[in-house]
């Protein structure tokens, strides 16, 4: 497959589709077409990346028949639940997709979600950038140094490597059957981390810390925690009342959270507390073993 002669299309002009299209364009990859559920999203992105064509899903077209040396690369960046429907719709457009490679960008779905296209001869893969993208800052999103999980057909993995290299990202492969566990890890690393930071904001406000500075005040603690986990692993990076066995401190926390307004935070505190207890126990067992005690 001659990647230099490929026509690149983006389907779904949302957070990821826009960020990828802009980054590819910036790195010299010409975007041939942009299609999205609403014409307005597709047109906006078309202008940004100076694509040739744009339109709604009903208007998807990959142009005239490709020459023997040309190929098509299509990135489908729509919500997970819509991926297979969109693939099915595209599959109905042509009989022969042998010169095409299709990707979706879902973290949890495997390349099998694009089966309707594979059945028409296309190579299919998943191309999941392990990063968080917001539409509001998507255009400035950089892929430099971020990791992209790729799985799927051999030809798709090759093209994935080519695209990742173009935008300065790093590639890793993930087993299609186990991909969902990888994505749950990503949910913890980003989405649930945001939920934890929201609890920090709520409790910081209750402690009457300056509202706009709460996260800034906690930032050095957050960064150091991350660095410690990176360097020593999660169990060894643990500090705090559970690790020290400061039961009275924990009791005080539970009492403070027992009011109606903090009930949801109490549930979160208790669930994370149980998990943290397991982590602290792990560390204790490891210490005992390293002193030649319990094996
Ligand atoms: N956001 C992230 O941080 C992130 C990171 C890595 C991977 N991903 C994955 O990338 C994919 C896209 O996520 P996203 O965050 O970019 O989503 P998004 O911002 O909501 O954009 C989704 C795009 O798909 C279109 N769309 C929305 N609902 C649809 C439906 N029911 N059927 C067909 N098309 C629909 C929208 O079109 P219109 O705008 O034209 O209405 C929009 O262009 C998902 O598989 C997600 O798991 C997301």
What does this structure look like?
- The chain contains 11 helices and 8 strands.
- It is an alpha/beta fold and 295 residues long.
- It has 2 domains: 3-176, NAD(P)-binding Rossmann-like Domain (Rossmann fold, 3-Layer(aba) Sandwich); 180-290, N-(1-d-carboxylethyl)-l-norvaline Dehydrogenase, domain 2 (Orthogonal Bundle), CATH 1.10.1040.20.
- The chain has an 8-stranded mixed β-sheet with strand order 3-2-1-4-5-6-7-8, with helices on both faces.
- Helix 3 (83-91) links the parallel strand 4 (71-76) and strand 5.
- The protein is elongated, with a radius of gyration of 24 Å.
- Bound molecules: NADP nicotinamide-adenine-dinucleotide phosphate.
- Residues 12-17, 36-38, 41, 77-80, 82, 86, 105-107, 128-129, 132-133, 135 line the site of NADP nicotinamide-adenine-dinucleotide phosphate (NAP).
- NADP nicotinamide-adenine-dinucleotide phosphate (NAP) is lined by residues 12-17, 36-38, 41, 77-80, 82, 86, 105-107, 128-129, 132-133, 135.
SSE arrangement:
Elements: E1 6-11, H1 15-26, E2 31-36, H2 39-49, E3 53-56, E4 71-76, H3 83-91, E5 100-104, H4 115-118, E6 123-129, E7 147-152, H5 154-166, E8 170-173, H6 179-206, H7 214-232, H8 234-237, H9 241-244, H10 247-256, H11 263-290
Parallel strand pairs: 1-2, 1-4, 2-3, 4-5, 5-6, 7-8
Antiparallel strand pairs: 6-7
The protein binds NADP nicotinamide-adenine-dinucleotide phosphate.
